[in-house]
Design goal:
The protein is an alpha+beta fold. Helix 3 crosses helix 4 and helix 5 crosses helix 6.
Length: 369
C-alpha cells in the first residue's frame, strides 16, 4: 500500500512538472525592469496608406505565415511581424500578439518571484499618466492560477494602451495615435497573445520555441490566408467600410470601424463572406477567475494617475486626485464609444448638408440651361 502511495506521488509530481513546463528564465536585472509598453512597433491597419509628414510615402504593414520567423522574447529583426488575415479570427496583428505573450511571461515570472513576499509594487512608467502595478500574491496561489493572473494583467495593460491613445497619449512625439486606437484587430490580437503566452509557459519547451510553434499552429487553426496578397485583398474588401484612404495618417478619421467590446470576451471581426459562417468557438474569453472561482482582480491593482487630457471630473465627479484602476476601464471605454458615436453622427449630418448643397447647385445649373 505504501509503495502504491509513493508511486502515485511520483506520478503526480512528474505530471505537475510537465504541466508547468520550462517557462521563461529571466535574470534579476530583467525581472526588475519591465518590458517597454510597446515592444514591437507594428502595425497600422490598412494598405497603401499615405502619411502626412512624409509626402509620397505609402505604408502597408502586411505579412504572411511563412515570413513570421521565430519568436524572440522582446523581439528582434528576424521576426517578420505584420498583419495577416484569418477566416476564423479576422485580422491578426502579429506584433501585438507577440507583445502580450512576452508581457504575460514577464508578469508570470514576477508573480512567482514575489509570491513569498506577498506584496509587490511595480512602477510601469507613463502612458496617459503614471502607471503602478500592485500585486497581492498569496503563497498558496498555484502556478496555473498565476498564469491566468499574468494573462489578465497583460491584457488589461493592452486595453489601457487603447484607452490612453484615444485620449492623446503617444509613444512618438507630435504623432497622435488616436487614429489606431481600438483598431479592428487590436483586442483580438492582444488577448490571443496573452492566451498563447500562457500556453507557452505551460509547455515543456523553452518559452521562445513554444511560442514559435503555438503561433504557427494557432494561425493554421484560424484558417490563415497563405500570402501577403491575400491579406492585401482582404484589406481592400473593407476599404471605405472599416478604413479610408481619403485621409493621411495620423488623421483620427482614418478608421471607420473600431473594436470597442473588449470585456468579458472578444469576438473576431470578419469579412462579410466569413461572418456568414461565424464559429463561436473562436471567441476569446478574458481570464477573470481562478480555477476555484475567485476574481483575479482580487490579487492586483493597476493604478493610474491620469494626466489632464482625460475628462476626469466629468467621468468621476465625486473623486479627487485623478486616480483610477482597472475597475474603471468600462467607464472610459463607454465614454470613448459615446464620443465616437457623436463624431459619426456629426459627420453624417455634415455629409447630408453637403449633398443637399450639391443637389441645389445641380438643380440651379439645370434650370439655367
Amino acid at each position: 500500500m505504501k509503495r502504491y502511495h509513493l508511486l502515485f506521488l511520483l506520478i503526480s509530481l512528474f505530471s505537475i512538472s510537465s504541466l508547468y513546463g520550462k517557462g521563461l528564465e529571466l535574470t534579476e536585472r530583467e525581472l526588475s525592469s519591465p518590458p517597454p509598453r510597446i515592444i514591437r512597433t507594428c502595425c497600422s491597419f490598412g494598405s497603401d496608406m499615405s502619411v502626412m509628414v512624409i509626402p509620397g510615402m505609402r505604408v502597408t504593414d502586411i505579412s504572411s505565415i511563412d515570413q513570421l520567423g521565430k519568436h524572440t522574447y522582446l523581439g528582434n529583426s528576424d521576426e517578420g511581424n505584420g498583419i495577416v488575415y484569418t477566416h476564423k479570427g479576422g485580422f491578426i496583428d502579429i506584433g501585438h500578439l507577440r507583445d502580450q505573450a512576452d508581457w504575460t511571461a514577464y508578469l508570470y515570472a514576477r508573480i512567482l518571484k514575489n509570491q513569498k513576499d506577498g506584496l509587490m509594487i511595480q512602477k510601469l512608467g507613463h502612458e496617459g499618466g503614471l502607471k503602478t502595478l500592485t500585486l497581492y500574491v498569496p503563497t498558496d496561489l498555484d502556478s496555473l492560477d498565476a498564469m491566468l493572473l499574468a494573462g489578465k494583467i497583460a491584457y488589461d495593460l493592452s486595453v489601457w494602451h487603447e484607452i490612453a491613445t484615444w485620449y492623446g497619449a503617444s509613444s512618438i512625439p507630435l504623432f497622435p495615435e488616436r487614429f489606431s486606437s481600438f483598431s479592428v484587430e487590436d483586442a483580438y490580437s492582444n488577448l490571443l497573445g496573452a492566451k498563447l503566452g500562457i500556453e507557452a509557459i505551460k509547455s515543456d519547451l523553452p518559452f521562445e520555441e513554444a511560442m514559435s510553434l503555438l503561433i504557427d499552429e494557432k494561425l493554421k487553426e484560424l484558417d490563415v490566408v497563405s500570402t501577403e496578397d491575400a491579406t492585401y485583398h482582404a484589406m481592400e474588401k473593407v476599404l471605405d467600410i472599416w478604413w479610408t484612404r481619403e485621409v493621411a495618417l495620423p488623421n483620427k478619421k482614418f478608421l471607420l470601424k473600431r473594436q470597442l467590446k473588449v470585456y468579458p470576451e472578444v469576438s473576431p471581426l470578419l469579412l462579410p463572406e466569413d461572418s456568414m459562417h461565424i464559429d463561436k468557438s473562436f471567441e476569446l474569453d478574458v481570464p477573470m477567475y481562478t480555477r476555484a472561482g475567485e476574481s483575479l482582480n482580487y490579487f492586483y491593482q493597476f493604478s493610474l494617475k491620469l494626466n489632464y487630457k482625460f475628462p476626469y471630473r466629468k467621468l468621476f465627479p465625486t473623486r479627487k486626485g485623478r486616480w483610477i484602476t482597472q475597475h474603471d476601464f468600462d467607464t472610459l471605454v463607454a465614454d470613448v464609444t459615446n464620443r465616437i458615436e457623436k463624431m459619426e453622427l456629426k459627420d453624417k449630418k455634415k455629409k447630408k448638408r453637403s449633398e443637399a448643397r450639391q443637389l441645389v447647385r445641380a438643380t440651379r445649373g439645370a434650370a439655367r440651361k
